[in-house]
Amino acid sequence: MTYGETLRTALEALRGHRLRSALTVLGILIGIAAVILTVGLGQGAQAQVRDQISKLGSNLLIVAPGSTTSASGVRGGRGSSSTLTVADADALGDDGVAPDVTAVAAVSTSSQSLTAGTTNWTANVVGTTPSWAQVRARTLSSGRFLTDDDVAQSRPVAVLGPTTATELFGGRGAVGQSVTVNGSTFTVVGVLQAIGSTTGTDEDDQAVVPRTTYATRVAGSTTRAAVSTIYLQATSQETLTAAYQEANALLQTRHGVTAAAADFTLSSQQSLISTATATDRTLTVLLAGVAGISLLVGALGIGNMMLVSVSERVREIGLRKALGATPAAVRRQFLVEASALGLSGGVAGVLLALVGAAVLPVLLDQPVTVSVAAAATAVGVSLLIGVVAGVYPASRAARLAPIDALRNE
Amino acid sequence: MTAILSLRDVRKTYVMGDLEVQALAGISMDVHEGEYVAVMGPSGSGKSTLMHILGCLDVPTSGTYELAGTDVSSMTEAQLAEVRNRRIGFVFQGFNLLPTLSAWRNVELPLCYAGVGREERRERAVAALERVGLGGRVDHRPGELSGGQQQRVAVARALVTDPALILADEPTGNLDSRSTADVLGLLQDLSAAGRTIMLITHEADVAEAAQRTVRIRDGLVERLAGAA
C-alpha cells in the first residue's frame, strides 16, 4: 500500500470517529498552545528587559561603589559607600593605563526639586562631563550638550530630559529658560532626545549639569570628590572583556584592595541582562514544564485512543490481513493515524497560540514572542508525540493473528 | 490436470495450557485446477482449522502444503500475507465488509495491498462488481445492500485479484434460502467459468452444489465422494 493510500485510509478511520478524534486532538492542541504561549511570554519579558538595558548605551561597563561595613559589622547595600572618586574616573580615562576604554563619564546623582517660574518638578539631577552623551548614547532634540568649558568654569547650565522639559515648561521651548535647583539658577542649554524609560530610573526625566557645578551648587561639600557611578565605554564589542580587566585591575591598584575585598562593583550590560532576566527565565522554565505536562497528558490521550481503536477494530485488522495486509502495512496504518492526530493537534495548537499572542499583550500588557522556530519545533514535537504514542498500539495491531482477529464476533 | 493445491500429512496441534489438542491429524489431499470442492464436517471436526491452513491464515505444525506450486508451510507472516493477497480470494460467513466504505472501495481493498494504481483499481473493482451482477450498486455502502447483495460484494472482492483459489467459508451461513440459492448460483457460474473453488460448510445441501465433497471427521479425511 502506498503512503498516500495509507494516509487516506488513516484519515477515513479518524473521520469515522469525529468526536473522539476531535477530543484527542484537543488534548495536544491545548498542550502545544500552552507551551508556545508560556515560552513566548517569558521570552517577551526577557526581550523587554534586554531592550531596556541596551538603551543604557553600547559596549558599556558600569562601576558602582561597593558596600560599607560599619564598626558594628552592619553591611550596607551595593553603592552605599562613597569610595569612587573623580580621580578614579580620570585615571580610567588615561589611554596609557586603560587603552581599550574609549570614554569615561563619572556621574553623581541626587533627587532634587526643580523650579521654573511657579512650576515645581522633582527629578534626578546628574552631575557629569561632556563624554556622558557619548557613553550613554544620547542625542539632543534641541540646543547643545555640556562642553569642557562648562565643566572647567563651573557654569550654571543644564540639559533637560524631554519629560522634565515638558513638565517644567509645557509645550514652550525650554532652551534659554531658567530653572532653579537648590537655590541656584541654571540656564537650560539643551533638551535630550527621548529614548523611553529603562529599568530602574526614567532616563527621560533628568537634568544633566556640569560635574563641577553639581559639586559646588547642588551637592553638599563633603561629597565633592565622590561620584555615585562611573560609566565606561569600550572601544568595541571585541575589546569589552579587555576593557573590563583593565578597569578592574586599575581600580584594585588605586584602592589598594584584592579582588575578594573589592570596594567597587564592575558590571557589564550583559551581566545586568543575565541578572535581570534570570528570574524570568526560571519562571518560564517552570511554567513551560507545567505546560509540557499537559502536552504529555495529551500524548497519553492519543495512546489511549489508539489502543481503544485497535481493540474496536480487531475484525477490520483481521480482514485487512486476510486480504493481504502485511504486519508492516498494518503497523504503518496505525502509526499514520496516531501521527495525524498529533500533527493536527500541533498545527491547531500553533494557530491558537498565534491568536493568543495577538490577544494576550492587550489583556496582560505583556509582550509575547512567538518565533517561527518555536512554532516549527512545536509542530515537529506534536508529530513526534503522535508517532511515539502510536508505537505500542500499532505494534499490537500488527501482531494480531488474522485468525484470532477474524474469529472475534 | 495439475494440482492447484496439495496437502501432504498436514497436522495441526494447539497447546492449551497442559492440554495438547490435535485439530488436524494428518490430512492429505489434492485439488486440481478448475475443481469445485466442498469440505464438509460437523463442528469440532477440524474443518475450520483446515480452512485456516488452506487460506494461509495459519501454518501447519507438520506436513507440507503446496499452493500453485509453492510450499507455503513454513513461510513468514509477511510472505503469507503476500500469498493470501495474490493467490487466494476469501468469502466469509459474516461477509466482512468495511461498513464505512462503498461497495467498490471494499472490492478494491486487496488491490491496494497489491500496489495496483488507483485508476486500475477502480476499473477492476467495477468490473468484478458487474461480474457478480452489482454493476448498478458500486457506490452503495454495505448497510444499503441486502444480505445476499453484501455476499455478492464479498465474492467480487474475492475475484478481483484473479486468484488461484476461491475459499468460501460457510458463505451461506448468514443468508435466507433465496439468497443462499443466489450465492450458490454465483459460485456455480464461477466454477463453470473455470475457477477453482473450495467451499467449507456443514450443510449437506450446500455441499451438493460442488463437484465433489471431502468429509472431515476428528481431523482426518473420512472418505472421498463424487467425481475425482
Indicate the topology.
The complex is a heterodimer of chains A (409) and B (228).
Chain A: H1 3-16, H2 18-54, E1 60-65, H3 86-92, E2 101-116, E3 119-128, H4 131-135, E4 140-143, H5 148-152, E5 157-160, H6 162-169, E6 178-181, E7 184-192, E8 206-210, H7 211-218, E9 229-234, H8 240-255, E10 264-268, H9 269-312, H10 314-322, H11 327-364, H12 372-399, H13 402-407
Parallel strand pairs in A: 3-8, 5-7
Antiparallel strand pairs in A: 1-9, 1-10, 2-3, 2-6, 2-9, 4-7, 5-8, 6-7
Helix pairs in contact in A: 1-11, 2-9, 2-11, 2-12, 9-11, 9-12, 11-12
Chain B: E1 3-16, E2 19-32, E3 36-40, H1 47-54, E4 62-67, E5 70-71, H2 77-87, E6 88-91, H3 103-114, H4 118-131, H5 147-159, E7 165-169, H6 177-192, E8 197-201, H7 204-207, E9 212-217, E10 220-226
Parallel strand pairs in B: 3-8, 3-9, 6-7, 7-8
Antiparallel strand pairs in B: 1-2, 1-4, 4-5, 9-10
Helix pairs in contact in B: 3-4, 3-5, 4-5, 5-6
- Report the β-strand fraction of chain B as a percent range: 25-35%
Low-confidence stretches of chain A: none
User: How many strands appear in the DSSP assignment of chain B?
Assistant: 10
Strand numbers in spatial order across the main sheet of chain A: 2-3-8-5-7-6
Structural class of chain A: alpha+beta
Give Rg of chain A in angstroms: 33 Å
Mean pLDDT of chain B: 89
Q: Which chains make the largest contact?
A: A-B, 24 and 25 residues
The mean pLDDT of chain A is 85
| Total discrete domains of chain A | 2
Oligomerization category of the chains in this entry: heterodimer
* SSE ordering of chain B: EEEHEEHEHHHEHEHEE
Quote the beta fraction of chain A. 15-25%
Shape of chain A: elongated
* Helix-strand makeup class of chain B: alpha/beta
* Portion of residues within helices of chain B: 25-40%
Distance between the termini of chain A: 27 Å
